[in-house]
Write a structure and sequence with these properties.
This protein is 30% helix and 13% strand. With 676 residues, it is an alpha/beta fold.
Length: 676
């Protein structure tokens, strides 16, 4: 893996003497107070502007500011007019477009395609403040506002839609968002390296059309436009693997580009779609990934390999930039729910090597864990203590995409560089994975010793399969850092769904639960696990849901809120949902089909099994159990799942159900990240 340019090793831009500012400007009046004649970069975002390192627009804005660029923010602009996009004038370098911390369609619609009434990233939680497909709409308006200004799209929405992709909300395969947005460049993943390099090159006078070598970028090639000396590997047909001839050595790999099936092919042929998805996911390790080509009409979409991971020193500096750590003052007393959830929490790492097929984290942040230093994390805790209003001594989370992957990685950097596995934990934990949790235990202990800290909680989900490798970690966690409840995600109990999810067997959850209960008892604390489950996931049949419901009943678990599978763009499970094929295996016409719970009624049935205790669901479950020949589960016996019909008051929700001891309402938090 090549050595990247140090993120903060550039000579600062001339405007460095004007910076930093207390808060990045949102209006022309704020620019005037700063005596700026123009912004160099204007970030347009679907989220309210929160100047905090859990919010993407703040991280990119402050990172560019550190390099001497004047950055302005246009947040949640009204999109029915071009005028809001002219609020800060014409940027000297580029517009940066993002939907915000979530894909706009995931943000606006439920898994059942119903319009949400609220938005956690908006003052007051008000819904409707961003358009569908925000990146496309914002790009169009910026182009209308100031023609000729380069338009760069990025963030989670651009990352997850960088290739032709299945879109659940329109139920069709859509083109790359780069094509629809008509942007000049797409930056995917955590894009600090690429956006900083881009800004400096544009500031030196380079033409945006010539910047083609940035890792983590995608662009369109005109017909006949050459892209260097590359050997094209044909992976356009299902079953055809993108491999070099045996006569050619590994050294030739770096000059190979993989041609995927075209947009037109994946739109019309689900087998081609699954095949393209397989090759996309095989090219996600920054140590060995090759560029991808995909034809869209008469043009080729070129996707460069993923960004190189940030070093600990680089990540520390990003998180210690001069954020105000609060929403923009213009919002006054209006609360932004997503900020309220994270204002007393600290991100300690990025990335996830779990590879859960329903999750989009790896497609965006990558599989290699990027860690902050303990010293930097402790300094941020002190910042929270000293600067965050409402702090009363409690740190709500030390975490990230997963609570306990801090400082875990492959034992051998060379093996890591060449590895093409999609998960380090499935079907079992890789023997090359270092699973020592001691650095995390030391961090927890040091955090508890910071003056002014009373309690440190862990709110991010814990991977119990990893935790079982280090019982000292479980004891430390349970004894000191559980606020009554701890989130874990078995997701299912049956082997077929778990295989499709790339999740471990339920027996590991049982082992973890026993240790959790034991250490809670030793600490003299009454504490409970909150297990999360997904219904209607690809690979799940009706019998699987019956088995899960019976398991829940035996465990005396009554779930208040449950998650129906949501097919996020470009996730592996989304490919299964759309194509009925498993891209984890070689995709051919003869490959076994995946069971896909599809259609409103089937999805309602699977969700109803997770809430078997709700009277509203009993009539539907009786019908299904009778059809399945499982009438023995209907009645008043201990083995029964639902009672027999009584003729009175059924089909009406009984409202809040009495819970088994210690089983709380299941409320999902949004911590400035999108888990699914």
């Amino acid at each position: 893996m090549e050595s990247p340019q140090q993120l903060f090793g550039y000579r600062p831009y001339w405007a460095k003497r004007l910076l930093p500012v207390a808060v990045l400007p949102r209006t022309r009046e704020e620019m005037d107070l700063l005596q700026w004649d123009a912004c160099d970069v204007i970030i347009v975002t679907g989220d309210a502007y929160v100047d905090h390192p859990s919010f993407g627009m703040a991280v990119i804005g402050r990172t560019l500011e550190e390099h001497g660029f004047r950055v302005g923010i246009i947040d949640q602009p009204a999109w029915d007019s071009v005028e809001p996009f002219r609020a800060l004038g014409r940027p000297t370098l580029f517009f940066g477009i993002t939907s915000g911390n979530m894909d706009s369609m995931v943000n606006r619609y439920t898994a059942d395609r119903r319009l949400r009434s609220d938005d956690a990233y908006t003052p007051g939680g008000e819904g409707g403040r961003r358009p569908d497909r925000s990146v496309v709409v914002y790009s169009q308006r910026c182009r209308e506002a100031y023609s000729g200004v380069p338009i760069i799209i990025g963030g989670i929405e651009a990352s997850l839609r960088r290739l032709a992709h299945y879109d659940y909300w329109s139920d069709k395969v859509r083109r790359s968002v780069l094509v629809d947005a008509r942007a000049d460049l797409l930056l995917y993943g955590n894009a600090e390296r690429s956006v900083v390099a881009l800004a400096h090159r544009l500031a030196r006078g380079e033409d945006i059309a010539t910047i083609r070598d940035l890792r983590g970028s995608a662009f369109l090639l005109r017909p006949g436009e050459a892209q260097g000396e590359w050997q094209e590997l044909d992976a356009t047909e299902p079953g055809r693997e993108a491999t070099l001839p045996k006569a050619e050595g590994r050294g030739q790999r770096e000059q190979c580009v993989v041609r995927l099936p075209s947009f037109e092919a994946v739109r019309s042929d689900k087998l081609c779609y699954a095949h393209a998805s397989r090759h996309f996911h095989l090219e996600t390790n920054p140590g060995n990934a090759r560029p991808l080509l995909q034809r869209h009409g008469t043009r080729d979409l070129w996707v460069n390999p993923p960004p190189l991971p940030l070093t600990t020193a680089e990540l520390d500096r990003i998180y210690e930039l001069p954020y105000s750590r609060s929403p923009h003052p213009a919002y006054r007393e209006a609360k932004i729910p997503a900020y309220e959830m994270i204002r007393f929490s600290v991100n300690i790492m990025r990335g996830c090597f779990g590879g859960c097929t329903f999750c989009s984290i790896t497609e965006h942040e990558g599989r290699i864990i990027q860690n902050r230093s303990q010293a930097s994390i402790l300094r941020e805790i002190e910042q929270i203590r000293d600067r965050t209003p409402g702090y009363h001594g409690h740190i709500s989370d030390l975490g990230g995409p997963t609570a306990n992957m801090y400082r875990l990685r492959c034992r051998d950097p060379e093996i890591e560089r060449h590895c093409r596995r999609l998960s380090c934990t499935f079907p079992a934990i890789c023997p090359q994975l270092q699973t020592d949790h001691q650095p995390l235990v030391e961090l927890y202990r040091a955090a508890r010793e910071v003056d002014g800290v009373k309690r440190v909680f862990i709110a991010s989900g814990v991977r119990y399969d990893l935790a079982l490798r280090d019982r000292d970690y479980i004891k430390e966690l349970v004894t000191h850092h559980v606020g009554g409840y701890l989130k874990v995600a078995p997701e299912h109990t049956e082997s077929a769904p778990l295989q499709a999810m790339m999740k471990p067997g339920i027996e590991l959850y049982d082992q973890f639960r026993l240790l959790f209960d034991r250490f809670s008892q030793e600490a003299g604390k009454e504490q409970y696990l909150i297990p999360y489950f997904i219904s209607a996931h690809p690979g799940t049949g009706d019998h699987d849901m019956v088995a899960l419901a019976l398991w829940l009943k035996r465990q005396k678990l009554r779930l208040d809120q449950v998650q129906n599978f949501l097919p996020a763009p470009m996730a592996i499970a989304t490919t299964m949902y759309h194509s009925g094929r498993n891209p984890l295996l070689r995709v051919t016409a003869a490959a076994a089909a995946v069971v896909v719970p599809m259609g409103g009624r089937v999805r309602r049935i699977h969700k109803a099994f997770l809430r078997y205790h709700d009277p509203h669901n009993w009539p539907l479950l009786r019908q299904v159990l009778t059809r399945m020949g499982r009438e023995a589960l209907i009645g008043s016996g201990r083995q029964s799942l639902v009672p027999a019909a009584t003729g009175g008051g059924e089909g009406k929700s009984a409202g809040p159900q009495p819970k088994s001891k210690g089983q709380p309402s299941r409320k999902k938090s949004r911590r400035g990240r999108s888990r699914r």
